[in-house]
Amino acid sequence: MAAELRRETLPVHWSYGVCEDGRIFFIDDQTRTTTWLHPRTGEPVNSGHMIRSDLPRGWEEGFTEEGASYFIK
């Protein structure tokens, strides 16, 4: 299950951004590093992309506005 994104769920000195494709990433403002995983839960945040257990590691399934699926590595 993907983590829920609320500003109050982020640790101190963390913020988040959204890529053009809608994926959410997290920024550690102290170390100036980023991650796709929520810093508290270690899980990705649901942003219209899905990580499926039947896909190879590192692959995600995304969906177009029309609902067609596509795969992202």
Describe this structure in words.
The protein has 73 residues and is mainly β. It has a domain at 11-51: Ubiquitin Ligase Nedd4, Chain: W (Single Sheet), CATH 2.20.70. It has strands spanning 14-18, 24-28, 33-35, 49-50, 60-63, 69-72. The strands form two sheets. The chain has a three-stranded antiparallel β-sheet, with no helix packed on it. The radius of gyration is 13 Å and the shape is elongated. 7% of the residues are buried.
Layout of helices and strands:
Blueprint: E1 14-18, E2 24-28, E3 33-35, E4 49-50, E5 60-63, E6 69-72
Antiparallel strand pairs: 1-2, 2-3, 4-5, 5-6
The CATH architecture category of the domain at 11-51 equals Single Sheet
For this structure, the CATH topology of the domain at 11-51 is Ubiquitin Ligase Nedd4, Chain: W
Number of helices: 0
pLDDT < 50 runs, ≥5 residues: none
Count the strands?
6
- How helix-rich are the residues, as a percent range? under 10%
* Largest sheet descriptor: 3 strands, antiparallel
- Output the CATH class name of the domain at 11-51: Mainly Beta
- Mean pLDDT across residues: 79
What is the global morphology?
elongated
Order of helices and strands: EEEEEE
Domain WW: 8-41, 53-73
Protein name: WW domain-containing protein
InterPro entries: WW_dom (IPR001202), WW_dom_sf (IPR036020)
Organism: Chiloscyllium punctatum
